[in-house]
Amino acid sequence: MNIKTLQFGKVAAAVALVSVMAACQNKDTATTTPAKTTEAGTVSTKDQIVYVNSDSLLTKYDYFKDLKTKLDGKAKSAEQDMGAKTQAFQREVAQYQQQQQTMAADQRASTEQRLARKQQELQAYQQNAGAALQNEQATEQEKLYDKVADYLKGYAKTKGYKMVLTYSKGNSAILFADESLDITSEVIKGLNEDYKSTKK
């Protein structure tokens, strides 16, 4: 009857879905104008498609780290609470098993009914506690997704990017991307600065 510690892998999946199209000023010119080059011959950042490594994002984004710590703590607390209730119930069952031979038939029947009700209540408590944790995790997961997506929308618009993709090792549609298109570090820095300002 132990509550399993909730996995936070779904958050990684949520962040991996962040693919933001920035508002195009002119769709026709965007599709017909060739990529501009700088004096050094490299492609201009204007109209580029860039990507963020979601693995690095999750390990270095302070908001995610704080969120994971909070949810892990709640899951651990629920696990300990459930463990204590289960042990108390098991002690009652053990005590009944020791005394049942000396009990009258009606007393045995009433005790067994009481223990059966208690077991059902314990199972219902476990299910409700698990559902509450999952609901909170889903809510926080959505907040995390919104934070990253909203930041990337503004970031892409400022930089002139038309699309921001995500890359995750072993779970990505991107087979190859030049490292010059990786904006992960800059995005993490910006996200952490925003998060730091909200904590003050």
TrEMBL record:
<feature type="signal peptide">
    <location>
        <begin position="1"/>
        <end position="22"/>
    </location>
</feature>
<protein>
    <submittedName>
        <fullName>OmpH family outer membrane protein</fullName>
    </submittedName>
</protein>
<keyword id="KW-0732">Signal</keyword>
<dbReference type="InterPro" id="IPR024930">
    <property type="entry name" value="Skp_dom_sf"/>
</dbReference>
<dbReference type="Pfam" id="PF03938">
    <property type="entry name" value="OmpH"/>
</dbReference>
<feature type="coiled-coil region">
    <location>
        <begin position="108"/>
        <end position="142"/>
    </location>
</feature>
<keyword id="KW-0175">Coiled coil</keyword>
<dbReference type="InterPro" id="IPR005632">
    <property type="entry name" value="Chaperone_Skp"/>
</dbReference>
<dbReference type="GO" id="GO:0051082">
    <property type="term" value="F:unfolded protein binding"/>
</dbReference>
<dbReference type="GO" id="GO:0050821">
    <property type="term" value="P:protein stabilization"/>
</dbReference>
<dbReference type="GO" id="GO:0005829">
    <property type="term" value="C:cytosol"/>
</dbReference>
<comment type="similarity">
    <text>Belongs to the Skp family.</text>
</comment>
